[in-house]
Amino acid sequence: MQNLTEFLSWLSGNILWGAPMLIALSLTGIVLTLGLRLATLRKIPYAFGLLMKGRKSAASGDIPPFSALMTAMSATVGTGNIAGVATAIAMGGPGALFWMWCIALIGMATKYSEAVLAVRFREQDDRGNFVGGPMYYIKNGMGKNWAWLGTLFALFGLLAGFGIGNTVQSNSVADALDATYDVPHGVTGAILAIIAGLVLLGGIKRIGQVASKLVPTMAILYVATGLVFILINLQQVPAAVSLIVDSAFNGHSAVGGFAGAGIMAAIRFGVARGVFSNEAGLGSAPIAHAAAQTNNPVQQGFIAMLGTFIDTLIICSITGLVIVMSGAWTSGASGAELTQQAFDILGYNYGAHVVALGLALFAFTTILGWSYYSERCAEYLFGTRVIMPFRLLWILAIPAGALLSLDFVWLLADVLNAMMAIPNLIALLVLCPLVFKLTKEYFDK
């Protein structure tokens, strides 16, 4: 086991989440952004307009376009927004936040393209539900000779879900509630399993309904609380922004408990944690967008890209600004502990409650969203007969995650997440001419 752990750690740090993968993700985003003629940046207001109109729809699909985005965001907005941002800054310095912004801007084109292809190549299963995602646009878009690549994606997605989307999330909630409110891990696990079970057994329609209410509420509350803390200390904002930009291009020397980091560390940790947070390029979100009630892939693509915009450019920015403004990033702390310290400093000791409750809500919705992703991967591999056994197994894994030590599972989940991205990036680059064509035709009309 020790040898396996060391190998996975090397594989994750040097290859899968090292320079090769980060360059591949970045270059794919740049190619798509330029190929779309910056439409994903120019059309942000237009996308929000489509989102507001997408609360109801009579088009083909299972859930309204708005609900599809909220389902995708329920999986995306999670521990990465609280612990991931803090880890990036702790390891790469304040400049890491700048590179998170950069990867999000080009990641919007990636997320847009994923959703366009997901709707364009989706299918209906034998229960009449709409199914789609990388495995389907690989099979239907690239041809049957490439179907094996879609099968690999589905396998990685199925296994990764039980790690990053289930057990590590329940474990994070249990740790946060135990540290702040002395709630036993077992109690947290049992409650999470019961509530999640009530939602998940109802399928995508119930997940969409819950996500449509819970995700906007929790995001607004977290962002509003962070903004209040920032506004109270408004005079510190210009210096914090200046520090972020300067650190991005010059690195930052050691200070306090911060060991120092060069420019490459800022780029590496900013890009890696940014992708971990918004999931652009991993191929997970298009699985949810394939269920949208829409007859227009391009419109759903614009709605989908807002997930990256909201996740990183709004929610992660709030966390990052609070951490930099507070000065807590020099303490040597990392992860959720650093975020908690920062909110405590700016929020007059209310930070523990903000972070604990935010982490609990974010992680719970991640469990819901990823259950749908992994279920669709399982269905692709084994057919609809696997759906109910899968849901029961997923629910049982939640309390197990709350009780176990998950260092190895975290590592394995990181590896599997990156393995999901490889087939998806190949498909995006092969099929990007179709994305450009559909987009041009849409605006020509």
What is the distance, rounded to the nearest whole angstrom, between the alpha carbons of the first and last residues? 59 Å
Average pLDDT over all residues: 90
Order of helices and strands: HHHHHHHEEHHHHHHHHHHHH
Characterize the quaternary organization of these chains.
Answer: single chain
Strand content: under 5%
The dominant shape is globular
Number of helices: 19
Q: Would you tell me the structural class of the helices and strands?
A: mainly alpha
Low-confidence runs = none
Gyration radius (Cα, Å) is 20 Å
Main sheet attributes: strand count, strand direction, barrel closure: 2 strands, antiparallel
Helix content: over 70%
How are the strands of the biggest sheet laid out side by side?
1-2
User: Using DSSP, what is the number of strands?
Assistant: 2
List the helices and strands and how they pair.
Blueprint: H1 2-16, H2 19-35, H3 39-42, H4 44-53, H5 65-76, H6 79-92, H7 95-120, E1 123-124, E2 130-131, H8 134-142, H9 147-181, H10 185-200, H11 203-232, H12 237-250, H13 263-278, H14 285-289, H15 297-326, H16 335-346, H17 351-382, H18 387-403, H19 407-444
Antiparallel strand pairs: 1-2
Helix pairs in contact: 1-19, 2-7, 2-19, 4-15, 5-11, 5-15, 5-17, 6-13, 6-15, 6-16, 7-8, 7-12, 7-13, 7-15, 7-19, 8-9, 8-19, 9-10, 9-17, 9-18, 9-19, 10-17, 10-18, 11-15, 11-17, 15-16, 16-17, 17-18
